[in-house]
Amino acid sequence: MATADFYHKRDDRYSSPSSRGQTKIANFLTAGAIGTTLLGLSVLTLTGTVMALILATPVLVVFSPVLVPAAIVLFLAAAGFVFSGGCSVAAIVTWRQSRR
């Protein structure tokens, strides 16, 4: 079985120079097509982001008197939970160290 595989392997040393050039051209064209597609998708994403920002800005300005205090309250609540969790961990560690 190994000898059959040996004779069917493709060796680039025996391929013609024109086929190697055609492979390079095909690789270049494929990379160009993929790059162009990805660039187009990134342009669409940027356009959608800018349009959403343009549409959302008036809403944010109108509701900012409500949103800013709400954000402050949520931040303080989250900070309180993190602080209480840290105090709990410190208490457990201290308790475990005192029991040794």
TrEMBL record:
Chain positions covered by the region annotation Disordered: 1-20
InterPro entries: Oleosin (IPR000136)
Protein location: Lipid droplet; Membrane
Pfam families per record: Oleosin (PF01277)
Annotated Basic and acidic residues bias: 1-14
Keywords: Lipid droplet, Membrane, Transmembrane, Transmembrane helix
Transmembrane segments annotated in the record for this chain: 28-55, 67-95
Membrane topology summary: Multi-pass membrane protein
Major localization listed first in the record, in broad terms: other
GO biological process, alphabetically ordered: lipid storage; post-embryonic development; reproductive structure development
A cellular component annotation (GO) from this entry: monolayer-surrounded lipid storage body
Family note: Belongs to the oleosin family.
Function of the protein: May have a structural role to stabilize the lipid body during desiccation of the seed by preventing coalescence of the oil. Probably interacts with both lipid and phospholipid moieties of lipid bodies. May also provide recognition signals for specific lipase anchorage in lipolysis during seedling growth.
Protein name per Swiss-Prot or TrEMBL: Oleosin
Organism, scientific name: Rubus argutus
